[in-house]
Amino acid sequence: MSGQNESRIRPSGRAAVVVLGDIGRSPRMQYHALSLARQAHLEVDIVAYGGSDPHSAVKEHKSVHIHEMTQWPSNPRSLPKILRPLLLIFKPLVQFFMLLWYLCVKIPAPDVFIVQNPPSVPTLVAVKLACWIRRSVFVIDWHNFGYTLLALSLRRNSRFVALYHWIEKHFGKMANGSLCVTRAMQHELAQNWGISATVLYDQPPEFFQPASLSEKHKLFCGIDKSLRTPYSLQDCLSNEVLTTDDDNPNVTLFTTQTGTDISLKWNRPALIVSSTSWTPDEDFSILLEAALMYDRRVSALLNEDDLKREDVFWQEIKGGKQYPRLLFIITGKGPEKEKYEEKIAKLNLKRVAFRTMWLEPEDYPLLLGSADLGVCLHTSSSGLDLPMKVVDMFGCGLPVCAVSYSCINELVEVDKNGLLFSSSSELADQFMMLFKGFPGECDELKSLRQGVLASRSSVNWATEWEENAKPLITKVIFEKSS
Known about the structure:
Blueprint: H1 3-6, E1 14-22, H2 27-38, E2 43-49, H3 56-60, E3 64-69, H4 84-106, E4 112-117, H5 123-134, E5 137-142, H6 146-153, H7 159-172, E6 177-180, H8 183-193, E7 198-199, H9 213-227, E8 255-258, E9 261-264, E10 270-275, H10 285-301, H11 310-319, E11 326-331, H12 337-346, E12 352-357, H13 364-370, E13 373-376, H14 388-395, E14 400-403, E15 418-421, H15 424-435, H16 443-456, H17 461-481
Parallel strand pairs: 1-2, 1-4, 2-3, 4-5, 5-6, 6-7, 10-11, 10-13, 11-12, 13-14, 14-15
Antiparallel strand pairs: 8-9
Helix pairs in contact: 2-17, 4-5, 6-7, 9-13, 10-15
Domain Glycosyltransferase subfamily 4-like N-terminal: 36-197
Main location: endoplasmic reticulum
Organism: Datura stramonium
């Protein structure tokens, strides 16, 4: 891009990042805001819902200004079915006028709007009208297709889905530029939507890195109490045989500190992390079934006797015996969380434990950098987007087991940085293979981690944004000014 074009983006210029969702749960749009401020030297206004805090780097940047809209209340379950179609019409109308108020009145006029899609309705309509009123241009960042997400809750042939599809396509073609997350989506937009989009792969920002031993110990000290609190009466982490060090603040389930020396316990559980939005496009039951299979298969392999004295039984499990205890930490918020927590509480698991939690933005990278394996249950309503959570895991040096679907191989390279599975049984097989001999002799798991670490240094968000997003944004602003 020429210096003449780049000079059009001045520190006095402005960009508005528009998210009809929780900005704290929209990492890619947070990274856009940081790059617009740091690399394009723009003043940036974020218009989004509140709820979860964004990363401190976003909150503390002097050129980034967050404007929180009032959140739409949860849909009441008691609402009669006959009234639900009215809600589908009324809700976007209210959101439309609220968006328009913020985009046209509450924030200074921007040179460019960067809008997240989905949701498409009413976002794209409101942004297009705001562009006309404020003489701005807009760029759509296509994360997925809104109509395919709507089809998860309605029939694919629903009139509402068809109308949504038409609006998304019609207003999507009005954008001055488009970014998208995969080459498969780029092809779909070009062939069937008439939209030329630039691929901007998700990449982790600089604060997603492998955790040091001291960082791991500090994190585990902070969450140790919640890890030892089970959903049911007892599990392999909460049994009294395993909690004799509760009063020692320097001992956690994973680490021990003696003076200034910190070490990982030889009989620690294997830590598996999965981040989920607890929505229908991520079938969490697959992970539950795989964990149950691992539990039963290991028990059968080791010929464990259910009639053993309980204290002896729990002590043997703590000792490992070829296969470790597994601790699954599930992060995220969403509508199906309570349903699955109830299911977890009813499981009779011997060597597997589940914990759900919501971490502060600064602690989430530390958890990923401290884990042994990540699991991704994202299946994609369109089959054309990639899970940001896997990108974050790779940034922290964490290998991944991910659900297989059409374009996931643009991100996960089998036997290099992760594995793909299509069923709970296949995922259980992967647990058995990866964790046999943990922590010292699990060569397959070590090989995957080495593959992640070898590739993570080749590219990052800042360079990807500089090469792909900045030229597009510079171009549309320059054309507007011409």
